[in-house]
Design a protein that fits this description.
The complex is a heterodimer of chains A (about 60) and B (about 425).
Chain A (H helix, E strand, L loop, with lengths): L3 H22 L9 H28 L1
Chain B lengths: L6 H4 L10 H5 L25 H9 L14 H6 L9 H7 L3 H25 L9 E2 L15 H5 L1 H5 L41 E2 L3 E3 L3 E10 L2 E10 L5 E5 L9 E2 H7 L4 E4 L11 E3 L2 E4 L7 E4 L5 E4 L6 H7 L3 E4 L5 E2 L2 E2 L13 E8 L2 E7 L12 H11 L3 E4 L8 E3 L2 E2 L9 E2 L1 E5 L2
Antiparallel strand pairs in B: 1-10, 2-3, 3-4, 4-5, 5-17, 6-22, 7-21, 8-19, 8-22, 9-10, 11-12, 11-13, 14-15, 16-17, 16-18, 19-20
Chain lengths: ~60, ~425
């Protein structure tokens, strides 16, 4: 899980950056606000949260 | 170095070795831990630094010295998140891929994720709707399709002119030169009577005239731009129609000309690609298919033939559902503001592009416009400002941009009439004129 989560976060972040740029150029396609993207956003938030928690806990253990 | 020689492993708690607890937990000197190539830990005194071992030690970022400068104990080492013993270091290192491999892997995964997203967002068909919620039709605009009475056909002016001469038995007096038969049935039959024929269909390569429809398509070329303006007069609103690909609202797609031919359309242009999106109001032929609004401008065509554009948040769906509407598109942006040219639009897609759009003059009189683009030497397309100016010059009071780019196609008489970029693409809906 510790190895997968950071990559999942990176992948989702990359995807949402692409969505954001596409949405600027073609808002009608609704890349950011559609149902699939909203579900991906939830996964992204959870993944980022867990990654951050693990990083903080590891950092605290080190020091 | 053999595993048994590794004092670090030997001192691991629970390994059965004896000794003081603190001694067991204290990490031994680097000498002997990393000197795997040395035959014996006693080859060199502990006080004598070894460049070989020191460099390897300091180069290993996973083995950080403690803040006191002393080597970390096993507990400290373990707290750094290491599960493997130093003797397994080689194996651990073998698992760590180079950074460039990680970057490539993550970028590849992003691409895979985008492809999967594109499949579910664009390609995968979803369960469509063949019929929506039928909206109410205002009684005052109910279409009159009944044929004119015999009296009206013989002399339509008789029913309009109160001063017409009547014979003693109540029938109009015969005239020496009977007036030509004029069919005034339909919502705009009288208003545009001179636009329709009395029975024949006159069709050319760029025009169509019948008893109910008058279409004139003009090809305009100027400033490296080619566009087609279809000027349309209708006897009744029933001849202005829309259709979905495969007659189903959803992500079904087909080419404009195919959808047009399936509905015997005289003239058709691409619609607003409503099937591609999950939001946005969709009313087609008096049926409500989707009522969620988004951030786009909306064009509503009412049963009386009028058209009105709405900015986001302006359209009251409760009113629409109670009073009814004939068509509604959710794409935009609107191109005229109270009949005036606009300079700012509710869209970022402003560069020159192929475009399709609809214009409104008055009830029963519309125009459908397709601008070819992305074809240097033939037509580069139009910006939204240019579109706005064009509709203003045409004399429209309402104008609305539809799905453009490769989607922008005009079909006439069963053939593609415009020259779409890349041959056009499959779309989800069209606007068409048919009898």
């Amino acid at each position: 899980m510790r190895k997968i989560l950071p990559h999942l976060t990176i992948v989702l972040a990359g995807m949402f950056l692409v969505f954001y740029v596409l949405d600027i150029f073609n808002e009608a396609m609704n890349f950011v606000g559609n149902r699939i993207s909203k579900n991906l956003l939830v996964i992204f938030c959870i993944s980022a949260l867990l990654t951050a928690i693990l990083a903080i806990s590891q950092d605290r253990k080190r020091h | 170095m053999r595993y048994d020689d590794d004092p670090y492993m030997k001192d691991r708690p629970g390994d059965g070795s004896s000794g003081n607890q603190s001694d067991r937990l204290r990490r031994p000197q680097p000498r002997g831990i990393y000197t795997s190539t040395r035959t014996s830990p006693g080859d060199r005194p502990a006080s004598e630094p070894s460049s070989h071992t020191r460099s390897r030690y300091t180069d290993d970022s996973n083995r950080r010295p403690t803040s006191t400068g002393r080597p970390p104990t096993y507990r400290q080492y373990a707290s750094q998140g290491h599960s493997a013993a130093p003797s397994h270091r080689a194996a651990v290192q073998k698992k760590n891929a180079p950074i460039w491999q990680l970057v490539v892997m993550d970028i590849s995964l992003i691409c895979v994720g985008l492809l999967v997203f594109a499949y579910f967002h664009h390609v995968r068909p979803v369960k469509g709707m063949q019929s929506g919620t039928v909206l109410p039709t205002p009684p005052s605009t109910v279409t009159t399709t009944a044929a004119p009475s015999a009296e009206e056909s013989l002399n339509p002016q008789a029913s309009l002119d109160p001063t017409a001469t009547l014979s003693p038995d109540g029938t109009p007096a015969p005239e020496e030169t009977p007036a030509p038969q004029i069919d005034t049935s339909g919502m705009w039959g009288a208003k545009f009577a001179d636009k329709f024929t009395t029975g024949d269909v006159i069709k050319t390569e760029n025009s169509y005239q019948s008893t109910n429809v008058n279409i004139q398509i003009d090809q305009v070329q100027r400033d490296g731009i080619t566009y087609y303006v279809a000027d349309i007069y209708l006897r009744d609103i029933q001849y202005f129609k829309t259709a979905f690909a495969e007659d189903t609202f959803g992500r079904n797609r087909d080419e404009t000309v195919n959808i047009a031919n399936n509905h015997n359309a005289i003239l058709a242009i691409s619609g607003d690609y409503c099937g591609m999106r999950n939001e946005g109001i969709v009313i087609r032929n008096g049926e409500l298919f989707r009522e969620s609004q988004d951030s786009m401008d909306v064009l509503v065509m009412y049963h009386d033939g009028t058209m009105q554009t709405y900015s986001p948040g302006q359209l009251d769906m409760d009113t629409i559902k109670s009073t009814g509407a004939y068509q509604a598109w959710d794409f935009g942006p609107m191109l005229l503001n109270n009949g005036q040219v606009m300079t700012e639009f509710n869209s970022n897609l402003n560069p020159k592009n192929p475009r399709s759009a609809i214009g409104y003059y008055e009830p029963g009189h519309y125009c459908l416009v397709v601008v070819d683009g992305r074809q240097e030497g033939y037509s580069v397309g139009m910006t939204l400002q240019e579109m706005s100016q064009m509709f203003y010059d045409l004399g429209c009071t309402v104008a609305y941009n539809l799905d453009g780019g490769q989607s922008a196609v005009m079909a006439y008489d069963g053939q593609v009439h415009s020259q779409p970029y890349g041959g056009g693409r499959s779309i989800s809906d069209i606007i068409y004129i048919a009898e």
